[in-house]
Amino acid sequence: MRPEDPTPGERDEPAANRPAASPPDPAGPADFAVDLTAHELLRRAHVLDALGPDWDPLDALRDESAAYGLLYSGLDEQQQRVYDDLVAAGVLPGGGSGRAAT
Fold it and tell me: What is the pTM for the complete model shown?
């Protein structure tokens, strides 16, 4: 809502009873708004189209979890300590033991 727009109560008043709107300040910030709703919907449609009809989000999540398990598998003692420190500090999500799932 712009400053010169009438408030809901002012909309009911005749224009002659309302104070004149002040002109925008040329030195002030410009009123700039872009509605990206249509673009976002188009972007999502293109993403889903690119993924194809066979894409299964649950399967993708399982694959991602398995890949995450492999990422931190086979750590030596020093790497495991660093991994444990990072999990304890909240830098990495916990749940992994540093060992690959079998």
Answer: 0.42
